[in-house]
Amino acid sequence: MLTGTVVLAGGVLLLPGGASSAADEPAVAPTPQRACNAGSRPETSIQGRVPQRDYDSGRARQGYSCNTRLFSHIGASGGFKVYRYVDAAGHTCVFYDSTRLAPTDLPYNVGSGGIGTFVVDVSDPSRPRHTATLQTLAMDSPHESLNLNRRRGLLAAVAGNPATLPGLIDVYSVRRDCRHPVLQSSIPYQGLGHESGFAPDGRTFYASATSGYTLAAIDLTDPRHPATLATYYGVNYHGLRVSPDGNRMYVANIGTPSPGGRVSVGGLRILDTSQIQARRPDPQVRTLSDLSWRQKSIPQAADPLLIGGHRYVLESDEFANFTLGPGLVVAGGYEADAPVGAARLINIDNARNPFVVSDLRLAVHQLKNRSGPQKNDPGANSTIGGYTGHYCSAPRYRNPGIVACSMIGSGLRIFDVRHPYHPREVGYFNRVTYPNTKPNGAGGLAYSAPAWDLRRRLVYYSDGLKGLYAVRLAKAIVPRHYWD
């Protein structure tokens, strides 16, 4: 819970609220798996693991799949966000950022298609075609802030990296021809950059600085002239997701770790943003609740969903442990006893009393499995994530049926969430990079929030060292209403 009141620009206040208990959280256990079909190449070890013996034998080069197959591929690098969009003329595009850690990725990216945010025409998804690269300052290094508002056809990002960057927002229109986005504005704003959120009506873009301790609300009513509505100081927020009416924000709250600490004190924070949505002067933002959970690592994002008439968020954590630098949160290497947060479904019917209903996690995330042979896997020892979680996404807000999570070295994971208290993993797809073949390469590097085309049974995601994949899902794991 936020301690005290934080004074904001223009005299705005961020008001504290109550905390919720995680006492009734279900036991932290791996999500049960569905059997793989005949065309699959299943994992050879426990759920999510790429064992050393598969690197030695060459098996890992074939990749791993369950109820999925490769449909198409383009590029040789990737970042944190993937979006699919159909414009007014019927063109279908995918947008994705190309770098994970600017500027350290720069030498590799220059030799792998360049830097920037990539635009790919997938009107024929079997033949993806790169049509543009957005290279304004924020699009060159958006970190985790790339965001799309489908209602207004706006693609926006702020300049960012893990340490945050000075506030600069780029806004493009993709509505008329998504293959060639049109720059609307590129201007500074009051705050710093790292992650973001978009109000569903497309009028408000939110930017969080994470370890820069700012949260900015930016008016995009006229995307050619963005204006900062308010800047909040003293909060350590990550992903920001907004309710359909714009009046609630679901915040991945990193909190303020104690010096030398390994685990944050944050979790899910639910904010009342109605005064910003209503364009009240000097808007106040009130904390409605805070929730933590067992095996929490670094909260990443919490996407709102409606399933069977009940409201949930699909929350994901990233990494397994971190150390503190001067004002920074830095991911560390392998530690057998470090908690792995993975992902979970949280009931938010009562915004003042959210609670975890189930976990989306793999056997490789369990503490009892982290202390065994896994510690010798090249993927587990990667300093940039190991087998841990990063981003999840759903194909739609109302009754999505299935969701997908990028779990770095374990690849793309597909979960059936029609019964939120009893989810099942129904598929996966993992392409493995061999150690020392590419910078920071070991295992898979699936970081991105996936995008969806379930009419064709496709999921798009990017791998940090291999580019953009379109993955075809077996009919048996896709709810029938998507493809009938």
TrEMBL record:
The keyword Signal applies. Residues 1-22 form the signal peptide. Keywords: Signal. Coiled coil: none annotated. Residues 19-59 are annotated as: Disordered. InterPro entries: Quino_amine_DH_bsu, WD40/YVTN_repeat-like_dom_sf. It comes from the Bacteria. This is LVIVD repeat-containing protein. It comes from Nocardioides marmoribigeumensis. The lineage of its organism: Bacteria, Bacillati, Actinomycetota, Actinomycetes, Propionibacteriales.
